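[INFO] parsing input record for Topoisomerase I damage affected protein 2
[DEBUG] input buffer:
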Amino acid sequence: MSDNMLSPRVRSPNLQSPTGQRTVPQSSAPPKKFDSDQLRAYMKKLLPSTLQGMVWDSKDRDQSKAWTKEIGERIKARMLEIEPSGFKYVVTTQINENLGQGGRAGLVCHWEDSDACIQEMYTNDSLICICIAFAIRIP
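[DEBUG] output buffer:
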């Protein structure tokens, strides 16, 4: 393509590429990993202590919402105690009636080495609780 075919705006002397080499900041240390073992141990104690002896009542949705909210908030608070900055935290908690059913779930994400996904499950004769916590590194 010749210069005659370019519009005047493209040939403007004010629109020039920056000179010099582009520098990429070098990190001296690898990013800190979230301590998933510490959170997993907490979740293993929290779920039974919160839900042991509880009975699923399909008519009382407010109770299952309260359990779900309490568990999620306590896990997120513990995540902030373990690593107060540098991560985005997401906690999902699901409580369902235990009817002896099976289940299957999948999770696909683009992970970095410092990210973590921790899952714990609690069941009794009446209910099933599945809790998943994500710690995602932010720059």
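[INFO] The CA atoms of residues 118 and 133 lie 5 Å apart.
[INFO] shutting down worker
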